[in-house]
Write a structure and sequence with these properties.
The structure is a homodimer of 325-residue chains. By secondary structure, the first copy, chain A, is α/β, with parallel strands linked by helices. The first copy, chain A, is 23% helix and 29% strand. In chain A, the strands form five sheets. In chain A, strands 1, 2, 3, 4, 5, 6, 7 and 20 form an eight-stranded mixed β-sheet that branches. Chain A is elongated.
Chain lengths: 325, 325
Amino acid sequence: MKLTKQNLQPATEKIYDTIVVGGGAGGLSAGVYLQRYLLNTLIIDKGKARSFWMIELHNYLGLPPDTPGRSVLRQGKEHFLSLGGDLLDAYVEEVIDEGETFAVKVKVGRNNSQYHTFRTKYLIAASGIIDYLPVLENMRNVYDYAGHNLHVCLICDGYEMTDKKVGVFASSAGNAEVVFPVGWFTGEITLFTQGLFEVNDDLRNRLEVLGYKIEETPVEQFIGEDHQMTGVELTDGRVVELETGLISMGSQYHATYLNKFDLEKQGGNLVTDKMARTSHPRIFAIGDLKVGLNQVVIAAADGALAATQIWRDIRRSTPPKTPTK
Amino acid sequence: MKLTKQNLQPATEKIYDTIVVGGGAGGLSAGVYLQRYLLNTLIIDKGKARSFWMIELHNYLGLPPDTPGRSVLRQGKEHFLSLGGDLLDAYVEEVIDEGETFAVKVKVGRNNSQYHTFRTKYLIAASGIIDYLPVLENMRNVYDYAGHNLHVCLICDGYEMTDKKVGVFASSAGNAEVVFPVGWFTGEITLFTQGLFEVNDDLRNRLEVLGYKIEETPVEQFIGEDHQMTGVELTDGRVVELETGLISMGSQYHATYLNKFDLEKQGGNLVTDKMARTSHPRIFAIGDLKVGLNQVVIAAADGALAATQIWRDIRRSTPPKTPTK
């Protein structure tokens, strides 16, 4: 059921089989599988999964390629709730390992916040990442285009850039490297450093050889209408025309609640085994938090894997049912 | 485009980036990703993927839980074709490694068959498995219930068996072991050996302790109406009432065309790395053919992984595009 400040008290007194932190594609898929394994599940969702921002999901099997990310999330929530799962909009502040259980401390509500503790045998970290966007005085201007023709994921949307004039907005020499795989899709590339980093000679040479441009003046604003970006205005007043863009400025990981567990990582991502288990035997990580491709269908599959392994763990330590008569 | 006997000639003269053997969930997902990576893809489908038989897909994120498997396949085919992919209904008889390419020999049409050879740089084996079903004189009687309340996949449909009288139809002591995880969902279990194997003392004892029944007389027919099985009639005329069933008789792997490659296997399944690559660097395996969970969402994710790795391979050996002017 949908938990609220008003009705959540009984849920704080039981022990869940699994608490899933994050109600995005991974968390909801895990929730559906867990409930179908007859495991009591609570999904704690702070809202606005990365896929929530996807205007159109172009590559998810079974859905028309103009399906909005948020409609997948809505369907997933309905599905999970229809199976008897519990869902709470809240922010996970801390997770404490109590041995057999975890205590999951949450803050409910931005205003008149309540603080509660839930308990669970297993934890699935499905809280994902969020992309850093160019910081402008008027952030509304960024949100107007991000997710439309100003993309954040080359694997998802490179196809949409085919043979178009693309601006790549990077915040470091490292994430500027995405320019070269962008070159698979189009040769009309301008790298915008936004003045955030120095372009070293090696990178400059490799760009020049290919005829890719570099623009180091900071961006004043994106230009366009009806969510279609048509270029950028720079702080010196010049305008660069573009047909599409890719933001490559890194991501923020939503997993501070895991910090003190010292889980094995690779880069910022959690290392997991084939069943999405982290280096802690009762903590699983799925979707964008873990090493791998950041794709909705991968997150959904991760959810199935983690749920299945948790079911196996719990089932193997529980006697089977016997006839009632 | 949809290839047919009439229009396939030009396709036999080119070299595809990838040929996908199998147009099920995995193959179609791979096809969608590959086409979006601007890679020329041919899917060769012999028809009737395992998911084609699924009356309702209960656990695929984003789709209502009564979605038929075949509607996912239909949507996937449309999606793939809309991206310019080629699709051919045919049977792959043999694959020959020519070094840089594979020659894929196919038979088109059951009647007045044509034999053609297609060429590709990479191969994705997505041809899956099909479950063995109880062999009765009247197979129509099996098909009437299979996929409705006579299931073949515990992970998918255990939930549907919750606290119901279930018949487990096994063909060996090995696959009879599924009885115990079935016991997670219900205690009312009868194991039907159909006279196909001896129940050894160990298994018999473990079943008896739990109060699970054993029925060794062969099945004459399933009883029920409107696709809802309500029991079985045995060859000695007795009737056993049931509310649901699980068939656990193993599966046939659709991959004879790979036999001579001597790929690394585990049980009957192909071993792959994290990107679904087999022990042959240009052959990928996805979905039920490979080690892992046999789930639609996993196959779809595998398709994304294999396609992405093939794109990386090809991209890294190809110069990027440069400006046109």
